[in-house]
Amino acid sequence: MILGKQWRPFTASGAPTGRHARHGRSRRLAVTASASTNGDRKQRVVFLGTPDVAAGVLRQLLSASQQAGAQFEVSMVVSQPGKPRGRGNRAVAQPSPVEALARDSGLLAPEAILCPARAKEESFLAALAELQPDLCVTAAYGNMLPQRFLDTPRLGTLNVHPSLLPLYRGAAPVQRALEDGVKETGVSVAYTVLACDAGPVLAQQRVAVDPDIQAPELLTQLFGLGTQLLLDRLPDVWAGRGQELAVAQDESKVLHAAKLGREESMLDFGRGTAEVIHNRVRGFAGWPGTSARFEVTDEASGASEVIEVKILRTRLPREPRSSSSGSAAGGAIVFEGDAMLVPCAGGGVLEVLQVQPPTKKAMAAKDWKNGLRGKRLTLPAAAPQQAVAAV
Hints:
Methionyl-tRNA Fmet Formyltransferase, Chain A, domain 2, Formyl_transf_N, Met-tRNA-FMT_C, 8-stranded mixed sheet, EC 2.1.2.9, elongated, transferase
């Protein structure tokens, strides 16, 4: 096993290093390896994940591993290194949600929580091999796994993926599905192979998509369901039937979910229909978020400025509403009830419910209206259609 200086980056949050940590870990692994020669040892599971939704998966796995009669234990947790938070010289690396949960749980030794910068690092792969895991489980880990990693666990590596594979393979399955306005999605538990999200599927569950649910909420829902699916199928995995029960994906139905970019976050009401913009707002909620530009004019002085406002939550009208009739007559932006009604391409109207103006905290659209008294709100002149707010 290779330790020494390469071991330190794993313990981004100050885990013990040096001779005592290494010797202690070796003794623990020796005990585990010795137990593997007996028939009564628990299956060793290694979990890999990074963000909040992955921490939710780990929490369920740890809870299940502590139940009476549990056949497995979480023997190692792997996450991406913590990212600096704060400004300038005061920036301090903070552990990922998965690393923080693993440490706070008290169920793992500090040296069993690893944070390699890349999963192909020699010292990380050596530590994994020494553990001799039975199964690895990934959920939103964020690092590519080399073949040497995949060859290590006796029963393979299972991934909890929030889509109905082969649909929405890739980095942003939930976000792209919501952007596309799907009425149904789901979660898959699939074996990991070198090709991205292309392994055979062990289990799947379909889920109807609420028309107003946003990406963070749907991610939490799907990862929770996916973890339960995984737990339900573990008896088959322990019995060695998992691989033969898994179903190969239909490559003719593959749909890729490209990584999101900040350049996609700007909304254009003059070019997108109300439904298209609503779906983008809900799909991009959390990160990268969505914004729109408005022109604010002081009615007394005539002075105006264009500001960029974050659009946090929207809703399609409960009844079909045209920008050429009713409260949106003439294409005006109006405030009505709890919403700001914005005309969109195709003659429709989008109800904006929550915004964050520059230098302000997130607020309800109706509260932003109060701060606009004496001012007119319009879409910038460069937009294909011009609208005036009635405030």
